[in-house]
Each structure stands twice: as structure tokens, then as C-alpha cells.
């Protein structure tokens, strides 16, 4: 039964080419998720494409385009069972164009592995991913210092990179006493599943053991049902199946639900016919489960990614306007009122306009440093008023923290990240 072990969603993040997909591929191979024969097939494809050494990555990068470019584009999900958990691994893209998928991945994760290559250390995206994980509420993290084979398994190099990453994690607000740093060579399998004999100086957990050191997140099952839609499939013989992670609450076949905002902006109602997870029918799905749901009365053309499924008697708010606290991470110039970038909230991507910069706050003390600033620059933390240009479901942090976080993106980069603190509801 799928229900015996608790489900833990773990995302692998880090700079492009630092070895995330290879780590996951090696892990799955050694945990028996695919055979020698499949690995050999992947090796042949890798060599044909002139990508020798990419075979483990190909396990995750199923898309042809990804194989040819050697990059992870979309999110890939894989299942692995440890002593304690049923793990859903989310391999998030490191490449800059694909950060928006990485944000979606981080917003679904309970814990993260940050992969940093020993030869390069902290890179631009390492930094971006750490701040995103923090803002998206990924509280637990472990650091994999990969490619140790390329630095001759040198402890000094490991300590150097560890020091760099520690500074970064602290500046993002992570507590180091809870974070393990694991030296690995994903390609050679050192410290992934089996302990390596090449690093006698290290006596901490392997990657596989680390999964079970993550704490099980409290399941917000007693909160109202919220399931942001990740994708919508039309399945022959079944009908329309929205897929996503239940963030809060619980869902059973027979439940009357509303999907907001839906294409109309006013929501659409239906009844849950069946719920499936990892190809098994469920009698109940709860917060934390990644599921597919068949809903009677709802067609594929009615709903889309970014819509939210809720019970009809307790729907979320569609925002006319909302107040948020944001941190400006990486803007090329400054942010002023009138600026209209794309907001990534749960699985929604909606252009939103900064209507007012209310006040600037000292991030260390939380004190107000300036009322109504003219602009915000990198490093600033501020309270702002935002107006979505398309219907958007978002909730205040004190109402539902799982529905309140967002990232702000513009021209291929994450410029800011934040959390909603108050919502003015749209009159529907």
C-alpha cells in the first residue's frame, strides 16, 4: 500500500551542470529503480549524442530536447522508498531560462538538496536557488558537494566550499546546526548510496541516509482544501484530470469542489469522481500528496495550470489587490510604482502591477526605515501593494501560509520574492 510510509517531497536544486540530475540518476540506479540494461541503453544514447558521462542524468531528462542540450528543462518526478519515507524526488532545473519551473518545484518541496560542484563552488544560481528555497518556505536543506573526484577527494577543498556555502545559507536565514554537508561524486557513486572509501575523513550520512534525517513536515490536513493545478490532462475513457500537490486539507471522492479562478474568472464547480496517486486509486488524499483528480462536470478547456481546487463551502480568495512583504534579490535597476513583472504564486504565473511602495523595512530588525520610498533596489525589503492583471488566487500568510508565497520574475531572472500579508477580494 502506498499509504504505509509518509510521503516526503524533496527537490534537488543548484547551478546548471553541478550534477543534480546525475546525482538523482545514480541514486535511483543504486536504489534499484532501473536496471543495468536500461543504464546501458542510456550510455549508448549519451555517446551517440556526444554526451558521454550524462547517462545518469538522462534517467531524469526524458525529453529529447533536454538530451540534446544536456539540460533539465521541466520538472521530473521520481519515486524512491527509504526506511522511513516514500520519497517523491523533484529534479529542478538549474539553467537560467528554467528557473520558473524550479520555483514551482520548490513551492512543492518539504526539503531540498543543494548541489554545489567542488571545483566551482558557489555560483550565481546557487545563490538564487538558496534565496528562492527560503522564500518558498523550504525549511530543511542538506548540501551535496559534488564532483569530489575532480578535486582528488581533497578534504581541504571540501571545507573551503562548505565555508562558502555556509555564509550564503546564513545570509538567507538558514540555521547551520540543522544542515549536513555531504561530499559526493555522483558520477562515481561516492557517498550517494554506498559510503565511499576514498574520503576516510568524512563520517556523516550518505545521500540516501540523509533522506531519513529530514523531519516529516506537519501535515496541514485540518486546514481548508487547497490544490493548485500543475497540469491538466485529457485521458481517454476517464475524462479531464487535473494534476498537482494538495497543499492543505483533504479530498475524497464525492466531494463538491470549486476550481478558481478558472477560465471564466468566476470559478467552476464539480464533483470529485476519483483520485489517483502513483497509479493507485485513493479513498482519500491529504496535504502533501501529489495526485491526479477526475472531476465530474469540468472539461479540459475550463481550467488551467495555476487554478486552485477547493471545497465549495470554503473557497480561497481571488485577489483584486494584495499587500505583500518582498525582498528584492536581483533587479538590473530599481523597482518603482507601475512596474509590471510576472508573479509566480503556487503554480500560477500572472503579470502583476506594483501599485504602491508602502514602506521599506530593515531586514535584520524588522523596523521601518522609510515610508513611501520612490524606488526599491537589490537587498531592500519592503511592504508593497500589488494588483494582478489576471484573476489570481492568493491568500494571506496568517490565513494559509502555503498559499501566500511568491517569486517575481522579469526578463528571465528572479528579481524578487515575497509573501502575501493581506488580500482585498475581487467581487465575483
SSE arrangement:
Blueprint: E1 7-14, H1 20-30, H2 36-48, H3 55-60, H4 64-69, E2 76-81, E3 86-91, H5 99-107, E4 111-117, H6 124-135, E5 140-146, H7 155-171, E6 181-183, H8 207-213, E7 227-235, E8 239-245, E9 250-251, E10 256-260, E11 268-277, E12 280-282, E13 285-286, E14 290-296, E15 308-311, E16 319-328, E17 342-345, E18 348-361, E19 368-371, E20 381-388, E21 405-410, E22 413-425
Parallel strand pairs: 1-3, 1-4, 4-5, 5-6
Antiparallel strand pairs: 2-3, 7-8, 7-15, 8-14, 9-13, 10-11, 10-15, 11-12, 11-14, 16-20, 16-22, 17-18, 17-21, 18-19, 18-20, 21-22
Summarize this structure as a short list of keywords or feature phrases:
single chain; 428 residues; alpha+beta; Rossmann fold; Elongation Factor Tu (Ef-tu), domain 3; 3 domains; six-stranded mixed β-sheet; six-stranded antiparallel barrel; 8 helices
In short:
With 428 residues, the chain is an alpha+beta fold. The chain has eight helices and 22 strands.
Through-space gap between termini: 42 Å
CATH fold-level assignment of the largest domain? Rossmann fold
How would the global form be characterised? Answer: globular
Q: What is the total tally of β strands?
A: 22
Tell me the series of helices and strands, N- to C-terminal.
Answer: EHHHHEEHEHEHEHEEEEEEEEEEEEEEEE
Mean pLDDT: 85
For the record, the CATH architecture of the largest domain stands as: 3-Layer(aba) Sandwich
Q: Please give the order of strands in the largest beta sheet.
A: 2-3-1-4-5-6
CATH class group of the largest domain = Alpha Beta
Structure overview:
By secondary structure, this protein is of the alpha+beta class. The protein has helices at 20-30, 36-48, 55-60, 64-69, 99-107, 124-135, 155-171, 207-213, and strands spanning 7-14, 76-81, 86-91, 111-117, 140-146, 181-183, 227-235, 239-245, 250-251, 256-260, 268-277, 280-282, 285-286, 290-296, 308-311, 319-328, 342-345, 348-361, 368-371, 381-388, 405-410, 413-425. It folds into 3 domains: 7-213, 3-Layer(aba) Sandwich (Rossmann fold), CATH 3.40.50.300; 227-311, Elongation Factor Tu (Ef-tu), domain 3 (Beta Barrel); 319-425, Translation factors (Elongation Factor Tu (Ef-tu), domain 3). It starts with 6 loop residues before the first strand and ends with a strand. Helices cover 19% and strands 34% of the residues. Residues 70-76 and 93-101 have low confidence and may be disordered. The protein is globular and about 65 Å long. The strands form 4 sheets. The chain has a 6-stranded mixed beta sheet, with helices on both faces.
Amino acid at each position: 500500500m502506498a499509504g504505509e510510509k509518509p510521503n516526503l517531497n524533496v527537490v534537488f536544486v543548484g547551478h546548471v551542470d553541478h550534477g543534480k540530475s546525475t546525482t538523482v540518476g545514480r541514486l535511483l540506479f543504486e536504489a534499484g529503480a532501473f536496471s543495468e540494461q536500461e543504464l546501458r541503453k542510456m550510455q549508448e544514447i549519451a555517446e551517440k549524442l556526444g554526451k558521454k558521462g550524462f547517462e545518469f542524468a538522462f534517467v531524469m531528462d526524458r525529453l529529447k530536447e533536454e538530451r540534446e542540450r544536456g539540460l533539465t528543462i521541466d520538472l521530473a518526478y521520481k519515486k524512491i522508498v527509504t526506511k522511513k519515507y516514500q520519497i517523491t524526488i523533484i529534479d529542478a532545473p538549474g539553467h537560467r531560462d528554467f528557473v520558473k519551473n524550479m520555483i514551482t518545484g520548490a513551492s512543492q518541496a518539504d526539503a531540498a538538496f543543494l548541489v554545489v560542484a567542488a571545483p566551482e563552488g558557489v555560483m550565481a544560481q546557487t545563490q538564487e536557488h538558496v534565496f528562492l528555497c527560503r522564500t518558498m518556505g523550504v525549511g530543511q536543506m542538506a548540501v551535496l558537494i559534488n564532483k569530489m573526484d575532480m578535486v582528488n577527494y581533497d578534504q581541504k577543498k571540501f571545507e573551503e566550499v562548505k565555508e562558502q556555502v555556509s555564509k550564503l545559507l546564513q545570509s538567507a536565514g538558514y540555521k547551520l546546526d540543522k544542515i549536513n554537508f555531504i561530499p559526493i561524486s555522483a558520477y562515481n557513486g561516492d557517498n550517494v548510496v554506498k559510503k565511499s572509501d576514498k574520503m576516510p575523513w568524512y563520517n556523516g550520512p550518505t545521500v540516501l541516509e540523509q533522506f531519513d534525517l529530514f523531519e516529516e513536515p506537519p501535515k496541514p490536513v485540518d486546514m481548508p482544501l487547497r490544490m493548485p493545478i500543475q497540469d491538466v490532462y485529457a485521458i481517454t475513457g476517464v475524462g479531464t484530470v487535473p494534476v498537482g500537490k494538495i497543499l492543505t486539507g483533504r479530498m475524497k471522492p464525492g466531494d463538491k469542489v470549486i476550481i478558481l479562478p478558472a477560465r471564466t474568472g468566476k470559478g467552476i464547480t464539480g464533483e470529485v469522481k476519483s483520485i489517483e496517486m502513483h497509479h493507485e486509486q485513493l479513498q482519500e488524499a491529504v496535504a502533501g500528496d501529489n495526485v491526479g483528480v477526475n472531476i465530474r462536470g469540468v472539461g479540459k478547456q475550463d481550467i488551467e495550470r495555476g487554478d486552485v481546487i477547493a471545497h465549495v463551502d470554503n473557497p480561497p480568495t481571488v485577489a483584486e489587490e494584495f499587500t505583500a512583504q518582498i525582498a528584492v534579490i536581483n533587479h538590473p535597476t530599481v523597482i518603482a510604482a507601475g512596474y509590471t513583472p510576472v508573479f509566480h504564486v503556487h503554480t500560477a504565473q500572472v503579470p502583476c502591477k506594483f501599485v504602491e511602495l508602502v514602506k521599506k523595512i530593515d531586514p535584520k530588525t524588522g523596523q521601518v526605515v522609510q515610508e513611501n520610498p520612490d524606488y526599491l533596489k537589490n537587498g531592500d525589503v519592503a511592504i508593497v501593494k500589488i494588483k494582478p492583471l489576471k484573476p489570481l488566487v492568493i491568500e494571506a500568510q496568517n490565513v494559509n501560509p502555503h498559499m501566500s508565497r511568491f517569486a517575481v520574475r522579469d526578463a528571465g531572472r528572479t528579481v524578487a520574492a515575497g509573501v502575501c500579508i493581506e488580500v482585498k477580494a475581487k467581487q465575483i
